[in-house]
Every structure is written in C-alpha cells, then in structure tokens.
Fold this sequence. Notes:
- The structure holds 3 protein chains of 3 kinds.
- By secondary structure, chain A is mainly alpha-helical.
- Chain A has helices at residues 19-41, 50-56, 59-90, 96-102, 111-122, 127-136, 151-176, 179-187, 192-203, 205-221, 224-229, 234-244, 248-273, 295-331, 334-367, 371-380, 388-414, 426-450, 454-462, 467-496, 499-504, 512-521, 525-553, and strands at 91-92, 291-292.
- Chain A has a domain at 44-274 and 300-316: MetI-like fold, CATH 1.10.3720.10.
- The longest helix of chain A is centred in the middle third of the chain and has 37 residues, at 295-331.
- The two termini of chain A are 31 Å apart.
- By secondary structure, chain B is an alpha/beta fold.
- Chain B is 45% helix and 15% strand.
- Chain B contains 14 helices and 11 strands.
- In chain B, strands 1, 2, 3, 4, 5, 10 and 11 form a 7-stranded mixed sheet that branches.
- Helices cover 22% and strands 37% of the residues of chain C.
- The longest helix of chain C has 17 residues, at 169-185.
- Chain C folds into 2 domains: 3-235, Rossmann fold (3-Layer(aba) Sandwich), CATH 3.40.50.300; 240-347, no CATH class.
- In chain C, strand 5 (66-70) and strand 6 form a beta hairpin.
- The chains are: A mainly alpha, B alpha/beta, C alpha+beta.
Amino acid sequence: MTDRMVETTAPPIAVFRGGWHNAAVIAVALVLSLPVLVVLGHVFVPSDDVWRHLVETVLADYVINTLLLMVGVAVGTFIGGVGCAWLASMCSFPGRGIFEWALLLPMALPAYIIAYTYTGMLDFAGPVQGGLRVVFGWGYGDYWFPEIRSLGGAVIMLSLVLYPYVYLLARAAFLNQSICVLDVSRTLGNGPWRTFLTVALPLARPAIVAGMSLALMETIADYGTVQYFGVPTFTTGIFRTWYGLNNAAAASQLSAVLLVFVIALIALERGSRARARFHHTTERHQDIRRIELSGWKAAAAFLFCFFAVFFGFLLPAGQLAWWSFVVAGEQIDARFAGLVWHSLQLGVIAAFLSVLLALFLGYGRRLARSRGVRAAVHLAGMGYAVPGTVIAVGVIIPFAWLDNTVDAFLRANFGISTGLILSGTLAALVFAYLVRFLAVSLQTVNAGLDRIRPSLDEAGRSLGLHPGEVVRRIHVPILKGSLLTAFLLVFVDVLKELPATLILRPFNFNTLAVRAYEMASEERLADAGPAALAIVLAGILPVILLSRSITKTRGTRP
Amino acid sequence: MTFKRFALGGFAALIALSGFAGSAAADEVNLYSARKEELIKPLLDRFTADTGITVNLVTGKADALLKRLESEGMNSPADLLLTTDAGRLFRAKAAGVTQAFVTDAISENIPEQYRDPQGHWVGLSLRARPILYAKDRVDPTMLSTYEDLADPKWKGKICIRSSSNIYNQSLIASLIEALGAEETEKWATGLVANFARPPKGGDRDQIKAAAAGQCDIAIANTYYLAGMATSKDEAQREAAAKVVVFWPNQDGRGTHVNVSGAALTKAAKNTEAAIKLVEFMTTAESQAWYSEANGEYPVRAGVAKSQTLQAWGDFKADTLSLAKLGENNGDAVRLMDRAGWK
Amino acid sequence: MTRQLDITDVAIAYGSAPVVRGLSLSLDKGAIGCLLGPSGCGKTSLLRAIAGFEPVTEGEIRLAGTIVSRPGETLAPEARNVGMVFQDFALFPHLSAFDNIAFGLRRWSAAERRERVGELLDLIGLAGAADAFPHELSGGQQQRVALARAMAPRPRILLLDEPFSNIDTELREQLAGEVRAVLKRDAVTAILVTHDQFEAFAIADIVGVMAEGRLRQWDDPYGLYHRPADRFVADFIGEGAMIAGKVVDRAHVETEIGVISGGLPPSLVSAGTQLSVLLRPDDIIHDESSPEQFPVVARAFRGSQYLYTLRLPSGAEIYCRAHCHHDHEPGEPIGVRLDVRHLTVFAEG
Lengths: 558, 342, 349
C-alpha cells in the first residue's frame, strides 16, 4: 500500500503529466489531416485565369446544384431516417421486428450502383417506360414520365442509400431516451405525436444531426451518381477542372471551397445548439412501452418502412441479382474469389485501425482542455467530405515525397536505394481509407464517449486505475456497442469505396468495387451485377450485426 | 468475448498487409493502365504465355495514374502508361514522365499520325466517333458532316453525352484545329440548341435513346455500338439493330478518331520487356484481337476487322496529328462551358 | 492521534483565475471533516486537489505524512489510495453492485475480495442486492453502493463530493447519520463537501467554512456557531443578527437593547469603540413581562417554535424563538430579554 509513496524527506514524487498525450493526439490528427492540408495548400498556387472562366460560365451551376442536392438529401434522409427510427423503435405494428434491421440494408448499396440500376429500370429505353409505350401505344413525347437522371433523381438515389445513417443514430438515441421524460410529456397533456415533436425529437437532436452530417458529407463527396446523372456539382466540377482543363491547382482550390461548405455546415450546427444541453437529468430507465398501432395507422407505418426497404434495397438488389444470374457463368470465377478476399481484407484492416485511431483521438479530445487538440481532431475528420480521388492525390503527393526523400538521402549518404517504400502499397491505400472514413468512426466513438460522464473516469482513477486502465476496464466495456458500430460502418464504407482504391492500389490488386465500376463504366451494367451484388451481400451481415449490437447496448448505458 | 475476437482478427489482417507491396522479379513489366482490366488482360495473358514475362497491372483513371506517376518520380515502379486517348499521352509527355522508345519494328507497324513525333508514345487501337442515326426516322442523305449537326433542322433531335467526357473534348479539339476556335464555338452553341435532352449517361445511353425514339441522332464511339450488337442482353441487341453508322466528313478531312496508346515512362526499369510488350501489341495478331474483342479499329494497316466492324464499311479517318487533340483539350473544355454544353 | 491529512498554504488556479488561496488545514486519523460553503467557494476544487484531479499552484498536500501534491508535481489519483464518492455516484453502468464495490480490489485475492464486498454490502444494508445493476437501484441505494465502492480498498482518506445532493431533502439528514455511522464503524478518515450546514453538522466532527477560495474557520460545529471567526462565518452558520454596540469596558458592551457582558477581543477593549454584536436567536429570551418590547416584523413556523423577527427602534432586526402557543401577529410588540452566553463582536464596518 505504501510502496508507491515516497516519504516526505525524499523529494521527487510520481507524476502524471498530460502533455505528451496532447502532443501525440495533435501529431496523429495532423498526419491524418495531411491529405486535406495538401489539398488546401494548393490554394496559394496560381491557377491562371481558370477561375475567371469558371465564374463566368459554370461556377454558379456548381454551387446551386450542390446546395440543392444537400437540401434535398437533408430533407430526404431526415424524413426517412427519423420517421423509420421512431416507428421501428417506439411503435408496435406488424413486421416491426424485421424492419428494425432491414431498414439498415440500403447502407450496403453504393450510391452509384443504385443509380445504375434505377436508370436501367426507369429511363426512356428501360423496361418500365418501354412497357408503358407498348401497353398504351405511346411514342416519344406522348406522355410525361419523371426523368430519373436529374437533380431530383440524384436526391432520391442518395437519400435512399444514406437515410440509414440517420436511422441508425436516431434509433440508438430513441432507445436510450429515458422513458420518464416521455411520460412526463404525456402527463402534461401532450399526445404521442406532440411528445415526439416536442420532447423525443429535440432530445435525439445531436444524434440526428450527427447522422445527417454524415449523410451530407457523403453527398458532397459523391461523384459517381451526379456524374452519371449529368448533374454538374462541385465535385464533378473538380474533376472537370482537373481532367478537362488540366489544371490541378484550380481543382484543388475548388476542393478547398468544398471544404469551406463543410466547415460552414459544422459551424452552423454547433452554433445552433450552443446553449442547449442534451444530457439526461434522470437516472432511471424503464423498458420501452411501444405505442400499439392498429388499423390504418399500422398499415401506414408498415408501408412507410416497407417503401424505404423496398426502394432502397429490395428492388435494386433484385435487379442486381437478376443481372448476376444472367452473366454468372462468365463473371464468377477464381479471380472473382480474389476480389472478394481483397475487399474483405481491406475492409477489416481499415475498419480495425479506424476504430483504434478514433478511440485514441476521441480520448485525447475528451481529456484535453486545449482548443488546439479539439481543432486538430476536428480537422482529422474532414476527409469524409472530400471526394476520394482528391484524398488519394493528397496521399500520393506526400507519400511519394517522403519515399523519394528517404531514397535520395540514403543514396547520397550510404549508396543504398530504397525505392518507394510506402507509395503503391496497401499501406498507402489503407491510410487513404483512414483519412476518408475517420469521421465515421470518430463520430460514433465520440457519441459513445459523451455518454460516459467524467465522474466515471475519476471514480476509476480514485480506485487505482491508470488512465490506460480506465479506457480498458471502464470505457471499452461501456463503449463496446459504439466500437462495434464504428467498425461495421467503416467496413461497409470501405467495401463500397472506389476512387481512392482505384488510384492507390498496388499492382494486380483488384476489389469488388473496382470490378463493378470497370464494368459499369464500360456501360456493361449486367456484367457489373455480380461484383455489385457481392458488395451488397458482404455488407448485409455487418448491417445485421450492427442492428443487434444497438439493441443490446440499451440497458447498459450510464 | 466477441470484442476480443474482433480485435484479434483485425490484428491478424494487419499482419497480412505487409505481404502485398510491389514485387521486383526479373522478367516482368509494370503497367499503369487507363484501359479497364477486362479489356486488356486477355492480351496481356497471351503475352505472358508467349514470352514468359509477367505483366503487373494497375488500372485507373488516366489523370489519376498520371498524377501517381508524376509524384513517384524516378522511383516509380511503372514501366508503361496505357491510356484510352491521345490527349493524356500528350499530357504525360508534357509532364516529362515519358521517354522516347519507338523502335523500327513499331514504326513499321503503326502509321505516323498515330505516333508521337519524338517517339514517346504510340497508338495501339483506333476509336472512331461517327454519327449514329435511327434508321426508321432519318434519311441518311440529309447527313453530311459534324458541322451540319448545328443546323436548326436537327432541333431537338440530337443526343450526346456530357462535355466532361474526354471523347467529346477530343472531338471539339479536332474541330478547333479544322475550323478555328471562333467558328467551333458558334458550332457548339448551335449543336447545344439541337440537343434532344440535357446530356446524361454514357455513349450506350445515347444509342439507346436514339433506338427508343427520344432522339434521331446520337454521337458515340463505335465500339459501344459493337458491344451492344454482340451483347447477351436482348434489349441491347435490339437497340443496336435500330441505329446505323454514318461516317461524317468523308468528302473532307475524315471522321474524327482517337487512339488508345502506350508511353514508356522515364522511370522505367524493365525497358526491354516493356518495349517487347508494345511490339507485341502492334503485331497483326494483337491488332486483330483489338478489333475482335473490343470493337475498336486496328491502327495497323492491312489487319482484318471483325465482322461487326466490316458491316459498317470502310471510312476515311481524320489524319490530324493526335498530339493536337491534347494541345487543344483545355481550350475545348472552356469553349463547351461557354456554349452551355453541360 | 496521527495526522492523516495535512494541507499547507495551498493555492489552486484554473488558468490565471485562482479558486483557492493560502489554505491550510489538517485532519486526524479516523476523523470526519467537512468543507462547507456557498457554491463557487472553491471547496470542490480543494477536494479534487486532495484526490489528485487538480494540481496545486502553491503549498503542499500530505496524506499520512507523504507529500502527494505540490507545485509542478501531482501524484496520480490512482497512486494515492484515496476513495471518492461522486455527486452523481458515477456507478459503472455495466457492472453489478457487487462488481462495482469489488472494482478497486482487483489486486486482492478472490476470497478476500468476496469477504470485503460481503462485509460492505452488509454494512450498507444491501446484502440482497449484490447482483443488481445500478439502474435497478433506488437513488439512496446507488448512493450507498457508491460509498461502499469508495470504502472497499480501505483508502487513507475518503472524499465525498456533495454526496447527498441527489437525495430527497427529508432523507438527507437521516442518510447523513447513517453514513456517519458506517464511516465510524469502519474507522474511515473522511472529508465531505457540502453547502448544507445541517448535513455538515450531522456527519462531521470538524467543519471548515470556505468563502472566495479561503478557509474562514476550521472548527467543531459548536465553535462555528458560538465563536464564529468573522462576519461571513457568523452569517453563514445558523441564524443571527448584527446590532451596533459600544464598548463600556473590557467586559461590557452597550447596545440599544441593553448592556451585554462577556470577554472582548484585545483589539476591541478600549472604551467607546464602536462595534457589531452578534445576537443568535437563543441569546434572546421571550419574556412577556420584560419592559423591552419590540414589534414583530415576520414570523416563521418551526414546528414546536416560532422564529420571530423583531424590529428595534434603530431599524435593526433581531431574531427570537418562542414556544408555538405564544402566537403573535406581525405588528404586535412582544417582550424580550437578553441572555448572552457567548459574546461575539466584530469591528465596525
């Protein structure tokens, strides 16, 4: 008991200093921000008169379309995500138990894939319109049919696959909400609907906002869907400026402007909730008593959830399955197994590291009183809103520079040539994934950490735990659900990721997403089917696990 | 328990990571290819079977691969850069990441206009971008040139994809060379006014739209039509059967063509094997394969075309030096921006 | 008695803002101390500094004779062997009551651990709830589990941060008594922090009154009440009024309700010195027959008694307790006489 104590006569005493930890957190956060910083660094590179040209011609289109897309997806994911979350967690109607996890399934579908499938079905030459023409004897121009490849179409496509982010977090928030608060509202004369609007919704707000900001960052970074639909947005503009105008500096500057969008978004959200607090004031939790729905209400609830699952998953996945069935013979071979293995391998590695880093950074942010640490951690999460290709370039430049510098140094001083150590390896690719998806794991882990009151840490410390042990013995058990959620989210995201994979992967290393893209971009949609379907199938299991882990975390919250 | 297992699994995978860095065996050549794996791999496999030289492949978008090449500098593992258009080959050369390599064997096989004047790159297959028309609605005698498509008689009848697409950019670049920038811009404005719908989708989508009656004329690369005509999907074959190829500008400079091609990187370490591969790709046999498997035209004279291509007849290709397409690319994009071509 | 806690000239600051200054106190082994003061007085900061969560900027803190904090050096909380009970209890939601209490005993053998936890569960009267999770316990039960958890490793000192603030008011004093009994039975040295003086008096052997980062007085409850060190303490502890007085001689002070006798501090003995006299309600006896009659300004029902506020001719107010069958309406004059056992005076101003 006294072994660790020093008598008064011996001056030095054991010390715990927080300084090194802060420095480490800032260092890691900055390394992860490097690609984004490289992009931002281009702001100072002159880009000729390209900007004048952009402003005169297309910039307004980019800005307006991007904003409309964001507003549309915000509305779509809010209605879909929050609506389904409320119904599936707080109401009782036929099929609820299945919807609880099935509502997450669209998450497994990449947005560009769903865009291809709906176009295949709904465009002028597709089976739906073709069938209508045959049945009614119409020709082109005789009838009106909504154009799928439009801004509105892009909003719907993105909303269909992104609403699960909002659903996931909103549902967790509803499940964790103290029933007492809801009961209090009922006793004050509010009906269930008013209670939802005035109590449950505001209380779940941080979770909903977190989910929507993930969805919106994905929206901003989306290239595949808007490109295919011919909607000029900021992201397509970046590529057009880079590829078409061959002006990488101006493209990077456009990316920097894109980041300003994101920062504004985050600031707006913070500002709006600055004075409100969302901690629960009561300690007691009771089992949820779901609101029994019957008659037309039950039918409406069923249909609402069913449409989300049907249009977000069943229909497009069914189309993919059909295509896969048609081409299975020649597409599914030994090489295909390699694709599956590569995708899973990358997904697991990146997700695992991403969770570790999120834990490290999230913990640093929690411990630190310094603004520097918080700002650095924020910066590290920005990669999510940056298109994958831009991240990839931001990875290539510093990695190649580092490799070449090391090589030149060793060659000059020791006559050894190391060549490229990191560039062109899986390490570079995994790093890009971490940069791109850190926000996902960080958000999830932070949300979990926020639920652990500081007094729990202090209780642990006063009972003899080192800070590291506090994490292992108190946080990890409480956070288990959040960590698993973070792991699965990143895993599914990596499975779907395309642009960074395309640029950074090593020789002879293909993934399912690469295959699906190569086929789809050759406009061989059916041949893209098996790979796309495999992504979906590989994503389903984690999604179901996710749903279970959330249901389980309830009851063990602080 | 599950958490522990999950942690262990992640760690095991992490260790597996280290085994996948680039390799450095003796007989091999490393390829950065903007050509999709599916469209190049069979040929590479045949090369490996013939010579015993392993080919390592990374596919991706041309500009991204170029950026990777530039950043990696002299330590880049890449020996060859394969692109699907001449503009990117031009850019690679301008960026200083390529070197002269064209051997006598190659220059014998490939006509001069499809090679870089300094021998930094060489075209491997020809991709033509003619006019396709719906055969039941268009009288082919009304068609003549690209220039004519700006005529108001085609109002609401033309389908073409976005100006972000490199094939359109190259087409405009060739027109700038032929007509001058001012005339081309006027033409582009007229063409945009004739669009049946805002540009969207790829080339196959334009063909499908023409087949379905949304427009009368589509501008698309021929190999897409070839792909549809030989597709297993009946709907695609039906659509392909409804459109006919028209070769424009046959009385003048010829139909716009582009090439897919290869450049030797400055950092190349397997120069010999790389040149062997390019030579292999220019053999009559490989050239015929391009035509058969990809629906592209051989760059090498005298090589037999596939049946599908034969059915569309012979045509006169624009003899413009392809390096010009690269030079004019930026101007072409700005011009289309100004013309309101989305 | 051995000293368990020694705090010498300690200052604590958040950034440049000092929250505790020049504070010294000490606590004997087995004693229960209490830091009392309004919110923001620095009492919680001091407690956290003892626990090792806050560094000190001046002075030193010793536990059982060993320095644990001094400027630039802060022994980590886990190395101090202090127990802490938090305001929100901070029970680990993922552990049962048993595992919560056993949490700090991981270096103990399983048998010892079981025995100690069992003993504590008995002590807090929750032997039947060992397997219950925190959310299944009532507030009072959670509080007792938190107390047992902190006591389990036999800490050198137990720190309690407003331990009863989450408990219903009626239960507080009762629980405070129970906690005192538990602490005494286990011979625990403890310090608690509160702003509620009744709670402090119910549990502590010695109480420190803090204000604006300084310790005003460190004394037993009787001393605080009857010998307050300054006006703040006099005001803060118990009810009382200040009226003006003038020194007659070294043992007498004259006020508007009569001359009060008692010892005066050496600085205030010269005749004619103006000063303030503290009058507690128990210094004023209700006496119908007294010639000194003052009007009632307000009255408060205190169960068996009324607490009357009376106005003196000068406008000053004093308090007087009277049995509740003496029922006087506001405005009605009542008779009182002085019975001051402890004369407490402060310099004017």
